[in-house]
Fold this sequence. Notes:
Two copies of one chain form a homodimer.
Chain A: H1 13-17, E1 24-25, H2 31-42, E2 53-59, H3 63-72, H4 75-81, E3 86-93, H5 106-123, E4 127-131, H6 136-143, E5 149-160, H7 168-174, E6 187-188
Antiparallel strand pairs in A: 1-5, 2-3, 3-5, 4-5
Amino acid sequence: xxxxxxxxxxxxxxxxxxxxxxxxxxxxxxxxxxxxxxxxxxxxxxxxxxxxxxxxxxxxxxxxxxxxxxxxxxxxxxxxxxxxxxxxxxxxxxxxxxxxxxxxxxxxxxxxxxxxxxxxxxxxxxxxxxxxxxxxxxxxxxxxxxxxxxxxxxxxxxxxxxxxxxxxxxxxxxxxxxxxxxxxxxxxxxxxxxxxxxxx
Amino acid sequence: xxxxxxxxxxxxxxxxxxxxxxxxxxxxxxxxxxxxxxxxxxxxxxxxxxxxxxxxxxxxxxxxxxxxxxxxxxxxxxxxxxxxxxxxxxxxxxxxxxxxxxxxxxxxxxxxxxxxxxxxxxxxxxxxxxxxxxxxxxxxxxxxxxxxxxxxxxxxxxxxxxxxxxxxxxxxxxxxxxxxxxxxxxxxxxxxxxxxxxxx
Lengths: 200, 200
């Protein structure tokens, strides 16, 4: 399904076309494309270039790890995510490697890495879906994630599935309109809450 | 200056070409391009589509707000950021609008919005630089940012400046090689610290 964002100002194609699908095809993702996904995350910006991101990853060709990853998801997410060829947990290093103190941009910078990853996925013709709905405790236990590292989100990536072959509720979710708050609600000038003329 | 990332796996152009410049030209950014920057942020993914981002923004054509924004930056950043046409503070809403409780993905999702914004900037021929080096307290005071909202990063966006006309230390910073940890250091399989064969 193609659901380009309806915008007032023009966007680059990957941003315009990225959305969170719930209908995946089980077809394997080519090795080079998987490499490009994490290469994209790698080149995200981060505070003092600290690169606080790590991922635990598996494809369906690695069923032991894949099934462990799947088991961390909330059941409502497992229903559709189990079709995606690649699952991952994104983990934030909460400690600055430079100062040894808390990195207050750790989660923010993992967000940048994930954003790059899903835009690269979109450009490669892959569907993506990031999820907060999983058990960080279970991920920590299964994958021996050390203290000081926070399992932050999970990602499902794969080829888009055929709408007609999916369950009715997934078809309905997949075809829902993408929506966002208007720019004037959150782009402000000198005082909080006053819309900037730059986005009118 | 053009500094494409040196990668093993191919990347889309905006990810490949984005980097954090310290040499800007004062030339104004066209209104439609400014619109596209925030449109790009707008279409980022967020947990439960909560869209926890806001921005306080000004260009040089709005000197009162621009100078207030500039005054929030650490002096070492002011030196070069003062040339950029657009300055902004990115602010995270720490409370979920859905549950009224803490949104543990707020900073992560603002990171996704910022990543989209700087990739869109890159595609439009603009230079960008995100900064943690500013005073959140000063931003909160000057712009009346309410409790429950966290000033997280600042951004400088503008046309790239001419290398030769910049101070020697900025020329040196601008020409430094972009570097990142190898994928095998942070893309793991079943156990923490074990590199995934998917990125070898």
